[in-house]
Amino acid sequence: MNMLTNDHILYHGAVIKVSQPLTHVGRSDLDFGPGFYVTNDREQAVKWAFTKAGRRPGSDAVLNIYKFEVDRFITDDRYRIKVFPEYNVEWLDFIAQSRKNCRPWEGYDWIEGGIADDRVISTVDAYIDGYMSASQAMDRLVNEQLRHQVCILNQEIIDNYMVFDHSETL
Predict the structure, then answer these.
(1) pLDDT tens, residue order, the chain (170 aa)
(2) 115 vs 2, 94, 118, 156, 167, CA distance in Å?
(3) Closest by Cα among 137, 56, 58, 53 to 94
């Protein structure tokens, strides 16, 4: 699951070409906070691009593709990295705190893990609202396939290790 051991290509689904990503323009109530979100899962990024385009009539779905210099990044110890390799209680609590805008992402430069998407959000919401315990939530999430995402919160990582390759209008 960890991007750092996978492909060196990252994807970002959007409605525009994003050749110069910025970390400071994201919403704070997202899974891993305000940052620039990418994935190593092309299918996931394409799906998100179409979702975004569907919310904005007349917009195109655009897949942005970046090369990421993993080998250089993993040897740089300046960054604080958090990886959730699976859906677990720690991930669930992190997402809950993010959705409550409690800022659990503060101090991190890179957060990687599963997406709280439409397959798992009802479970996450039930946990947040107190209708389900962490144990009950995990019983429901244990069989869900993790959908990969990375939130880059430090602009230096983008500037130093990520290079825009091209975009595709879908």
Answers:
(1) 455 545 589 999 999 999 999 998 878 778 999 999 999 999 999 999 999 999 999 999 999 999 999 888 888 899 999 999 999 999 999 999 998 889 999 999 999 999 988 788 899 999 999 999 999 999 999 888 888 899 999 999 999 999 999 999 99
(2) 13, 12, 9, 24, 23
(3) 137
